[in-house]
Amino acid sequence: MTSLVILRTLYFFTIVQCLKSGLAQQLVDVDRLEECPGGYCVRLHLCINETIVTEEEFEIDIRNRIGSDPIEVSTNKDENPDPCEQFLLRCCPAEKDSTTISPIEPAISTDRPEVIPEPPRLCGRVYPAGRIVHVQDDSLAQYGEFPWTAGLFQTGGSAEGSAYICGGSLIHPRVILTAAHCVRNVTHPDQLMVRLGEWDIANENEPYAHQDFAVHKIIKHQEWHPQKYHNDLALLILDKPVALAEGINTVCLPEVDEDFNGKRCVAVGWGKDVRKNRQYADVLKKIKVPVIEHDRCQGMLRQTKLTSVFRLDGSFLCAGGEIGVDTCKGDGGSPLMCDRGDGTYVQAGIVAWGIDCGRENVPGVYVKVAKFVDWMKETIEREGLTMA
């Protein structure tokens, strides 16, 4: 009887939330519930105070309720053992009352509900409703922390068997900014898929479902040099606009030639983790690195195998040079972002290349986004789109 009660209650909860918000795909799928000792394996945000969310919460918007109070989760299974094997699932105690709960029919009203307009979304900002889960690992991005981060997947024309190839960033509801070298082997837009709202690429149990988009057009910078990687940036025009929502937003572009030297900025990506045996990351990782002045960076890179004849092109900026803190293989195309001091992030760079990963006094090299702001805006406008 207990199992029946829980399943019926969760089913009704899902239907009501679907009617109210259209987000049923983000809630419990009753057909996939697995039992655990004394309860069921449910997503973290659906286990509140050791209780599976049921009828009492029908009038509460689950996103707002838990967005202001993130759920702590450890990435160390030894510290926080749970019988539910998948990350972001929790064994939540089942309802002990064996009395059957009769579903309550939702009231139907012909009155037009008051519509409260959502405030316009500002670029570079994180919205609290997207911050649901908090991980206790400073090498990982928090869930929803950088909602403009995109994953690029090469599909060969089909979403089946797609492979992650690079990162990117959402700079307009229909435009992804990435590195040109990421798409050098892509012969047709149909071979690409862009994923937004992603965090753990190996897990489907995140609070909000990711969104996948087809690519309509690939525009590489006309002066991109495929051997030297100069002007290494590309714009991907999506086939339809992205609906900005919890966990998805645009990042701000810098001012033309804006200077970030000396600032400590954040880079993210799903590439190899320098601090974790260089394994490719499932959960979006982040690092904080100092931006280094051009001539100083050139001098540091001349101490490597590039030798004293190396010249750092003006289309690049450098960041890092601290041992064990660096972007690495697989992070290409991902953003380097700086906080303007008010919680607004602006994209300073695009992960481009480096000499090995995480070596002391060997900075990582990024595309200097501020150098290409005019080119990006003009290119986007030629596609019939408007930049704010």
UniProtKB/TrEMBL annotation:
<dbReference type="InterPro" id="IPR018114">
    <property type="entry name" value="TRYPSIN_HIS"/>
</dbReference>
<dbReference type="InterPro" id="IPR041515">
    <property type="entry name" value="PPAF-2-like_Clip"/>
</dbReference>
<dbReference type="InterPro" id="IPR009003">
    <property type="entry name" value="Peptidase_S1_PA"/>
</dbReference>
<keyword id="KW-0325">Glycoprotein</keyword>
<dbReference type="InterPro" id="IPR043504">
    <property type="entry name" value="Peptidase_S1_PA_chymotrypsin"/>
</dbReference>
<dbReference type="InterPro" id="IPR051487">
    <property type="entry name" value="Ser/Thr_Proteases_Immune/Dev"/>
</dbReference>
<dbReference type="Pfam" id="PF18322">
    <property type="entry name" value="CLIP_1"/>
</dbReference>
<feature type="signal peptide">
    <location>
        <begin position="1"/>
        <end position="18"/>
    </location>
</feature>
<protein>
    <recommendedName>
        <fullName>Phenoloxidase-activating factor 2</fullName>
    </recommendedName>
</protein>
<comment type="similarity">
    <text>Belongs to the peptidase S1 family. CLIP subfamily.</text>
</comment>
<keyword id="KW-0732">Signal</keyword>
<keyword id="KW-0964">Secreted</keyword>
<keyword id="KW-1015">Disulfide bond</keyword>
<dbReference type="InterPro" id="IPR001314">
    <property type="entry name" value="Peptidase_S1A"/>
</dbReference>
<dbReference type="Pfam" id="PF00089">
    <property type="entry name" value="Trypsin"/>
</dbReference>
<dbReference type="InterPro" id="IPR001254">
    <property type="entry name" value="Trypsin_dom"/>
</dbReference>
<dbReference type="GO" id="GO:0005576">
    <property type="term" value="C:extracellular region"/>
</dbReference>
<feature type="domain" description="Peptidase S1">
    <location>
        <begin position="132"/>
        <end position="381"/>
    </location>
</feature>
